[in-house]
Each structure stands twice: as structure tokens, then as C-alpha cells.
Amino acid sequence: MADTDQVATELAAMRERNENGDLRDFAFNDAPRLLAAVEAVLDRHKPEGRSWEVVRCARHRLGSSVVTTEMRTCPDCQFTERVTCWQSKCADEGWPCKDYEAISRAVARGRGEP
Ligand SMILES: [Zn+2]
Ligand SMILES: [Zn+2]
């Protein structure tokens, strides 16, 4: 398991370099690592359309739970693809998941948005 204290220490050092004006060091050494960190998280939180919500018509409401070919071509049965996060723990949140939204908000703030 990764040493979370080590990560916190690294981040604190980066923050200090940024605040102290060690911008060359920050830009060349810290920024690429921060980008890699965000990208590593984003790689685990990406949209994946993988489940179908089926609303069965009156004719197909009863019977087996198996979705038949007949249902797939039925004009009255409705199939909606539900986009979820690739990370199975986020799947119930739909897309975008809360983790992706948190990153998205933080990145937007960097552009001067509230
Ligand atoms: Zn997610
Ligand atoms: Zn049907």
C-alpha cells in the first residue's frame, strides 16, 4: 500500500515551492508530477456506457426477464443506455461521477472560474 504520508509530504513541498516563488523548480519538477497524478485519477474515472435501462411495453412486460431479440426490435420497448463511471464503486452515481466532478471543479477554479 502506498505511503499516504509520503504523498502529503510531497504535496506540501510542492505547495511551498509554488508559494515561495521557486517557480522554475515548480514548473519543471512539480507540475508534470501533478498532471500525472490528476491523469492517473482520471484514468480510473471515465465514462463507460455499459448498462441498458429497459422499459418494457405492455406486450413484453410479462414473461422471462431475458431481453429477447424480439424485444430489441420492438418499437414499443424502450432501451436507454445508462452511462456510468468505469470505476465500479461510482457506478450508481451515473456520469459524471462525484470524483470526476470534484476534479473538474478544481481544474475550472484554476482557470479563474468560481
Ligand atoms: Zn468515478
Ligand atoms: Zn415490446
Low-confidence stretches: none
- Report the average pLDDT across residues: 88
Number of domains: 2
The class by helix and strand makeup works out as alpha+beta
Order of helices and strands: HHEHEH
**Heterogens:** zinc ion
* Beta-strand percentage range: 5-15%
Query: Looking at the structure, what is the overall shape?
Result: rod-shaped
- Give the biggest beta sheet: 2 strands, antiparallel
Number of strands: 2
Radius of gyration: 23 Å
The spatial strand order of the largest sheet comes to: 1-2
Number of helices: 4
How much helicity do the residues have? Answer: 40-55%
Calculate the terminal CA-CA distance, rounded to whole Å.
Answer: 35 Å
Can you offer a commentary on this structure?
With 114 residues, the chain is of the alpha+beta class. It has 2 domains: 43 residues, no CATH class; 69 residues, no CATH class. Helix content is 47%, strand content 15%. The chain contains 4 helices and 2 strands; from the N terminus they run ααβαβα. The chain has a two-stranded antiparallel ribbon with strand order 1-2. It starts with a helix and ends with a helix. The model has no long low-confidence stretch (mean pLDDT 88). The site of one zinc ion has 7 residues, from helix 4.
